Amino acid sequence: MTTRTLIRDLAHLPDGSEVSVSGWVETVRDQKKVQFVILRDETGSLQLVNPATREGDEAAATNPEALELTESISTLTHGSMLSVAGTLKHDERVKLGGLEVKIGSVDLASLSLPELPIAEDSSVDKRMDWRFVDLRRPDAQLLFRVQTTFEHALRGWWIERDFIEIHTPKLMASASESRAELFEVPYFETTAYLAQSPQFFKQMAQSAGFGRIFEIAPAFRADPSFTARHATEFTSVDMEVSWIDSHENVMVMHEELLTAGIQSVVERHGEAIRDRIGVELVTPTGAFPRVALQEAREKVAADGYTIPREDGDLDPEAERRLSALIKAETGSDFVFVTDYDTAIRPFYHMRHDDNPALTKSYDLLYNGTEIATGAQREHRIDVLEAQAQDKGMSLEDLEHYLDFFRYGVPPHGGFGMGLARVIMLMLEQTSIRESTYLFRGPNRLQP
Amino acid sequence: MTTRTLIRDLAHLPDGSEVSVSGWVETVRDQKKVQFVILRDETGSLQLVNPATREGDEAAATNPEALELTESISTLTHGSMLSVAGTLKHDERVKLGGLEVKIGSVDLASLSLPELPIAEDSSVDKRMDWRFVDLRRPDAQLLFRVQTTFEHALRGWWIERDFIEIHTPKLMASASESRAELFEVPYFETTAYLAQSPQFFKQMAQSAGFGRIFEIAPAFRADPSFTARHATEFTSVDMEVSWIDSHENVMVMHEELLTAGIQSVVERHGEAIRDRIGVELVTPTGAFPRVALQEAREKVAADGYTIPREDGDLDPEAERRLSALIKAETGSDFVFVTDYDTAIRPFYHMRHDDNPALTKSYDLLYNGTEIATGAQREHRIDVLEAQAQDKGMSLEDLEHYLDFFRYGVPPHGGFGMGLARVIMLMLEQTSIRESTYLFRGPNRLQP
Questions:
Q1: N or C: which end of chain B has fewer CB within 10 A?
Q2: Tell me, how does this one assemble (chains A, B) (predicted)?
């Protein structure tokens, strides 16, 4: 392994240390008497310096290596990857962390073409074309470090509570929810579908007696929408637990889980997020507010907004307004909207005993946008079949799913949550294209 | 939330405690004077007892609830899910952990059909048809707990070392490795392919300056094989790191990572694995043996086996023999086979400077079977292009991939490892169908 010191760790080394650093060139200032290179690695930026030896200088004759070194530095292009061995100097006058490395030797790993294909002011679409260059931005790297920390905290929360991690298949013989927006895959002699969610298979784990499970994995929707929050492939965060009494139990776990995730991000990256992205991330305290959908509609109407939908669901503008109202009332960035109308929920959401027009379900809004849907599931096979038929679904198509409920199944519920949405909203990004490693949309399959 | 005590935790409660347990019926012994139910949950089994009150008994008249309770217990079928409130009794004569709960009340969540569709001696294929019932077996549940612990330990190892977790897209515009065995997906006006591995996109993270990344995610191969170790969809464990000198650096990280994973499994489940599965799992100590492919061929030949392949690669029998020889020589369950012939490796594996017929690559064998392939990647664009052409590949098809190498890229390498294979071999299972939640093969898309 290249014995390499990360730039972040240089500050702890004594003056005069011989070090080796590796990274890419951010800028070269090639002055007559001295050359400066700003080198970046995944942890920071560093100034490298070399007293130039030029053709015709007295030193060039006696020290051809110095001439060669100067000339090799002159050829460096922005983006080139290299390792540099040199001597560390603590110098408070240097802006970049008060450190400088005097170049001893350069080992060029890979020279970049002279012109990078994108600049800071390139359009999002252009940046997505060259995502690997775009991702070198320190704020982009921070975003994926935040995501890494967030996911690890969620998994830690689950593991502490004895959840089992499952990997459900993404190739299915039938649709998981609706036939709309499904990708079809020719599969040997038959046709498979790409899973829109792990819904059926995470419920299967409840029949299997797993008790509590989680999964973070891709899901697919052949959704032709072009919005800031839709993708054809996305990372779905899923949890499902047995022996609940209602969706309220799921919400309690959901808010504890998210609080643990955000707390971990605040502890590890709070300062960097403030400095780099200008967002003051705060760990939520206590329970998230709950508002029944009916009350949510009334609040939004009282706020002067008429929802342009017939079905009674909130539209994105209503979600934004509701979130703003709740934020003003309670200070919370999150709000659970509960008890959705049966008409706008899938057949497997449990309905209220005392009011079958309402489901035991919720959506979770974060900073104005929906990030998750949860519910208690209907586990009583006779009721489930009736609800499926009620929605015009074919029991035959659902045969394998319905089987899960014939040999004993506990009451259960859970949620699915879009990872890129959570990170987008946490870091106040304008689109999930910024919080997805490689975005996939109707017009975007590359790189 | 149902206030529920896990069966595992009952032993710590005092005699006479009022408890509520939830789970499924394993057996009912419905005797004239007394009823016994064995209840199982995700943590263990428990004996429930009820002194029977029968029609015509004196007590039946004075205590109709007792009659009703007895009758409801009589109707319980194997697999039915229920919650039971009752009184805990410590009684050393009870085989199941010296505990018994006297039933106070039964809350039936879901009655199972009277005949379970599979029995202990059902064929693997039949068991896969009813996987959710099959997974109720305690050894199956243990397997997925082991997998959960193993994965969490891997992720912990990575996180401690500042790796970034990435989620690469599974929908690609072009093939990631070869055009063979690719699933095609009609994608709006064009065609997408399901990723066979995250290879290209994990390399992209190196161009992006991420330094070190990992991913655990599905991968897809339209592989018509029927073997104990192939699936059309599998969970791939991937790692990729920058600034390496050779594949040796990758192997060192790979063996440390696996050792951390197995150590965590041994600590948490070693006893249960011994008791339930009869496997004595031991944490590896020190480095795994390395054997160059050429030497591996010689060893297997000296062992009296002629490999029935023309291309110089090991076949499964050769892998088993080599592993047995290494195990006898060194005691190691693992062996790295290194320096594969260029002819049998993908174009992006780096070749040895002093011998371009050999690659800087390896396979890792575990208890006789290949679980992973690793390599240093070729990062020099001119060499990479020449190697691709050498393999008869179209540079045009690879355009977006080759772009990753034009704007600076560090030397890098990594590996891909099949999760279900690791768990299969760790727990001495006969097929990855046992170590996959829901197996997918050419004939298997359901449930």
A1: N
A2: Homodimer.
